Amino acid sequence: MVVCGDDALAHRLTAELRTFHGEQVTLVVPPNERLVRPPVVGRARAASAALLDRMVSAAVGRAGGAGSAGAGAGTQNADGVRVLEAVDVTEAVLAEAGVERATALALVYDDDETNIRAALTARRLNPRLRLVLRLYNRRLGQHIEELLDQAATLASGEGPDGGPDASTTVLSDADTAAPALAAAAVAGTTKVVQAGGLLLRSVERPPARDGQPPDQGLCTLALLSANGGGPGGTGRAGGEHGGEQEPRLLPDDDEVRLARGRPALVLEQVSAVGGAVPDAAGRGGGVAAGVVPPLASLFSRRLRWSLAGLVACVVALAVALWVVTDIGALPAFYLTLLDLFAIDDPAIGQSLGRQVLQLLSGLVGLLLLPVLLAAVLEALGTFRSASALRKPPRGLGGHVVLLGLGKIGTRVLTRLRELNVPVVGVEADPEARGLATARRLRVPVVLGDVTQEGVLEAAKIHRAYALLAVTSADTTNLEAALYARSVRPDLRVVLRLYDDDFATAVYRTLRAAHPGAPTRSRSVSHLSAPAFAGAMLGRQVLGALPVERRVLLFASVSVGGHAELEGRAVGSAFRGGAWRVLAVEGRGDVGPDYVLGAGDRVVVAATRRGLAELG
Q1: Most exposed: 11, 248, 485, 507, by fewest CB within 10 Å?
Q2: Whole-Å CA distances, 34 to 1, 13, 30, 63, 87
Q3: Is 107 exposed, middle or buried (0-12, 13-18, 19+ CB in 10 A)?
Q4: How does DSSP assign 17-70, residue by residue?
């Protein structure tokens, strides 16, 4: 396996492949002056931390060994990871990394153009190579995937699949992490994994009372920490620290029955949705929550009430004229409108009631003129400001304050809007890519540095339901969280933090200071690495569900060739702490007695090691 990248995702992916899947890996990184220390991978802390430390030591020890466009001499350490330094991913660098003999290549640079250029070169060097690209642009990714697969077919001449191994998979770390980040910020929202044609939902159940059986739903996905870590919390992995229990993923029935005082994460529903998006997304339709119909969006509430009052007055005058003159309903309305616009003859010589109604109609007409002028001005102002960012409206409350509208923040914003969650964005960069999305979705945005006084107040943080800090700076996210907690001690806080040790320390400190307020931390690379590793191994990872500081993977697996699956019933296709079969693709709801055949594909929930075992 060859991994090329310039940020934390490359290091996490390397540790994932080596630690959990036992693959031989070559890591291509920029020279040491651009090398960022890789964070510790949450689980298997001792092994993976030692591995990553040796990787960094090997890279730093070769300072100056990289040319301006070439690669330094790679050194293979005791763990089988070869670290190669290179400024640019040229053909010579890829050849030095062994792409011609590699099974798979992951290009996970932060720049889309760098990944595309390297992918085209790698496909030419090895048509059978399994390629995994990190691209933010979805549409471009689809075209590149088709182009590279066509190139593999032409070069190999072995059919439409380009040979037994050749394939191209385009993934986005932002798309992989956004659902988990959004779900962590929304209270009461079940965690959702869109698994092809299946909709998988999980929900936390409180500890069962004495004498009552635990509510397992369809199956129990995890037993959570008994001290309130909750799904998505930051309980330390790799053992019990300070008396804390670590979460138990995919427990068997005996473990669930014997669990006392521990909440559980259970599967609430598995249903076929035919590839459609969930109902929450369908209801949102890409329109921001709180955005009312077009007419109401043009005019203010006060103006709408004024117009409604004038219409009621006209109706009342018409009815009164009908009663007084007994001329019929339609003529009465017609004469009332003529009087309203002052184009009827004076009611000289007519009854007193008719004359009084004519005067009142004229008075209402005078009141109508400024209301119509205000309506025109408001409509023009609405059209003029349609391309401008909205400000948080007065009285806004119960919303999510989203800090950071970069790559990750943009995807999280879209996900929150699909769930019909009201959002206020905060962004320091007026040229941030997420501002266009916020403008299109009519999401209020506050432009300003969150570290400056008054910015979070402008986002109505004192009335917000949750703060979701997803900037690329850990210190900025932490500072925003601490200040928000000083304003609202019970505020739900979700942080994007890179280093697991730092995240654990922050989580425990915030939990101790504010025990009644939920705190969650997320690492984008931590959530994304399993999907990239699965794609490199030829597996289809459908999604990832964070369980405290661990990750539960959902993958599509072919039954053929797996002795653990073939010939077994769905209900018994299970290994405690490793993997569990959830559903059979393309067969709807099958019973637990359905026997798996070689031609079936199943959706499994698995730990990292469990998915490696199924490989």
Answers
A1: 485
A2: 23, 18, 6, 11, 9
A3: buried
A4: IIIIT---EEEEE--GGGPPPPPPPSSSHHHHHHHHHHHHHHHHTTTT---SSS
The two three-digit tokens of residue 230, written as one number: 């909750």
Amino acid letter for position 257: R
Non-local (6+) Cβ contacts of 341 within 8 A are 365
* Calpha distance 359→277 (Å, rounded): 59
Predicted pLDDT at 2: 96
Q: What is the pLDDT of residue 297?
A: 57
What's the helix, strand, coil split of the chain in %, to 5?
40, 20, 40
Cβ within 8 Å of residue 406, ≥6 positions away: 429, 432, 433, 434, 470, 471, 472
Amino acid at position 132, single letter: V
Residue 307 pairs in a beta bridge with none
**DSSP string across 231-266:** TT--PPSSS-STTPPPPEES--HHHHHH--S--EEE
Q: Residue 594 to residues 111, 407, 569, 574, 578: CA-CA distances in angstroms?
A: 46, 43, 5, 14, 21
CB of 133 within 8 A of CB of 107? Answer: yes
* Assigned token pair, 525: 């690379």
| pLDDT on residue 295 | 54
Q: By the 8 A CB rule, do 100 and 121 touch?
A: no
Judged on CB neighbours under 10 Å (0-12, 13-18, 19+), 210 is: exposed
Residue 369 near residue 310 (C-beta atoms within 8 A): no
Looking at residue 40, what is its pLDDT?
41
- For 59-104, the pLDDT digits (tens) are 434 333 433 344 555 666 556 689 999 989 999 999 999 999 999 9
Six-digit token string for 597: 């055949």
Q: What angle do CA 25, 29, 32 make, to 5 degrees?
A: 130
Cα–Cα distance measured from residue 594 to residue 572, given in angstroms and rounded to the nearest whole number: 10
- All residue ranges of the chain with pLDDT < 70 are 32-80, 156-165, 187-201, 208-218, 226-245, 268-298, 381-388, 499-500, 549, 588-589, 615
Q: How far apart are CA 40 and CA 501, in angstroms?
A: 7
Concatenating the DSSP letter of every residue in 314-376 gives HHHHHHHHHHHH---HHHHHHHHHHHHTT-S---TTS-HHHHHHHHHHHHHHHHHHHHHHHHH
Do 607 and 553 touch, CB atoms closer than 8 A? yes
Q: For residues 481 and 522, give the distance between their C-alpha atoms in angstroms, rounded to a whole number.
A: 14
